[in-house]
Amino acid sequence: MVHAPKLLELVELKLREVISREPTLLVMVVGIPNVGKSALINSIHQIATSRFPAQEKMKRATVGPLPSVTQDIAGFKIAHQPSIYVLDTPGVLVPSIPDIETGLKLALAGSVKDSVVGEERIAQYLLAVLNSRSTPLHWRHLNNRRIEELRNEYDEDKHDYKLKDLLPNRRKLPDRSDVKYIQDFVTEVQCALHVSLSEFNGNLEDENDLESLIELQFEKLQKAMKISQNASEARIMVSKKLLTLFRTGKLGPFTLDDVPDTPIPVS
Q: What's this model's pTM, rounded to 2 decimal places?
């Protein structure tokens, strides 16, 4: 997995190499849905405008948290003298997904629409990944620090703030009380998962034990998210909120693929 700044440094290097030979440069960005192709184009645009003069204000690629925001090939002129054009493309997938786990990874990353797999099943997979890696146990020091911060802050009225407002198309930036509410909400979710896993006495490698833990975590998340016990679609609501936190990075950066302990040599 390439770190974004490193990738952009490579892009800039390649741009400079080609521009020295070609007066006009055409770049196409291709990848699976919802991996950040349009966001990458906007980052390339920032690099280009800081290095090369622009004729006028350039268009920006539309981004969003769900797949299929880009539905057709779109061209963007991101610099002039030299002329640089970038093509943004709709996401492409292989004709068939080789196994169930690969499909769940793609669904969790938002590369396929939630309705294809189901929010609850995707959330169950997310919890299984977090538990198998003991990720909630590493949140303890973060929660302790946040709780201490809350003790030192004045009580403020909390806005009726919804998780959907975290999405990139939000026009009005959240104010201080909005941010505080989000931080508190994330802490509640992290605490619920931390407590449930730390008190778990079963075997995470046993499928039945893991299912029991996930069921318990759904109950604790429902309380942490203050979703009514009588809500007919409580589990779906919990699933959607949890997936939103994960996809907006509020639970931290993740890679869903297994990373080897030692680098694999490239032949």
A: 0.66
